[in-house]
C-alpha cells in the first residue's frame, strides 16, 4: 500500500515543469527570431552590439541579410519545435524528430556558450569590447540557459 506522499504525483509535477519550460523556450526563440527578422528588414536595434569585434573595433563577422534570415528562420523553427514538444498544439512531431532535434538544439547552444575561445563564449580571450561585455553578461549565459533547459526537457 502506498503511503500518501508527494512522490506519487512526481510525474504530474515533472510534466508541468516540462510544459512551462517548453513555453519559456518557445517565447525566447520567437523573440530571438523576431530580432533577426527585424535586421533583415532594415532594423538596427542591437545589430552592431551583437557582432564580435577585435580589440581595434573591426568586425569579426559581416553577416548579410540572408544570413540573418536563415538564423531567424532556424530560431523560429526551434520555437515551434518546443511549442509542439510541450503539447501546446494538436499537431505532433514524429518520434524520430522529437528524439533527435531535442538533443541537437541544446548541444548547439551549449557549443555557442562555450564559444571559439577567442571572441565568443564563456572562455573567450577578447572580453573588453562592446560585444565581449554583452557576450559575458547576456549572450553566453542565455545560450547556456537554453542548453540546460533544452536538456532538462529532453530528459524530462
Characterize this entry briefly.
This protein has 156 residues and is mostly helical.
Key structural traits:
mainly alpha, 156 residues
Describe this structure in words.
InterPro entries: DUF3995. Keywords: Membrane, Transmembrane, Transmembrane helix. The chain crosses the membrane at residues 12-31, 66-84, 96-115, 136-155. This protein is mainly alpha-helical and 156 residues long. The chain has one domain. It contains four helices and no strands. The protein has helices at 10-40, 65-85, 95-114, 130-155. Helix 1 (10-40) packs antiparallel against helix 2. The radius of gyration is 18 Å and the shape is globular. The model has no long low-confidence stretch (mean pLDDT 92).
- Portion in helices: 55-70%
The rounded Rg comes to 18 Å
Strand content: under 5%
What is the succession of H and E elements? HHHH
Q: How is this fold's topology laid out?
A:
Blueprint: H1 10-40, H2 65-85, H3 95-114, H4 130-155
Amino acid at each position: 500500500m502506498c503511503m500518501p506522499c508527494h512522490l506519487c504525483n512526481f510525474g504530474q509535477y515533472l510534466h508541468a515543469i516540462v510544459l512551462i519550460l517548453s513555453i519559456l523556450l518557445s517565447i525566447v526563440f520567437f523573440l530571438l527570431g523576431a530580432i533577426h527578422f527585424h535586421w533583415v528588414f532594415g532594423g538596427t536595434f542591437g545589430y552592431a552590439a551583437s557582432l564580435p569585434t577585435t580589440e581595434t573595433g573591426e568586425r569579426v563577422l559581416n553577416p548579410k541579410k540572408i544570413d540573418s534570415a536563415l538564423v531567424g528562420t532556424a530560431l523560429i523553427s526551434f520555437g515551434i519545435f518546443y511549442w509542439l514538444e510541450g503539447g501546446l498544439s494538436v499537431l505532433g512531431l514524429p518520434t524520430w524528430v522529437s528524439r533527435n532535434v531535442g538533443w541537437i538544439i541544446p548541444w548547439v547552444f551549449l557549443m555557442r556558450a562555450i564559444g571559439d575561445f577567442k571572441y565568443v563564449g564563456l572562455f573567450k580571450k577578447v572580453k573588453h569590447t562592446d560585444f565581449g561585455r554583452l557576450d559575458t553578461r547576456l549572450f553566453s549565459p542565455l545560450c547556456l540557459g537554453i542548453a540546460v533547459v533544452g536538456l532538462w526537457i529532453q530528459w524530462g
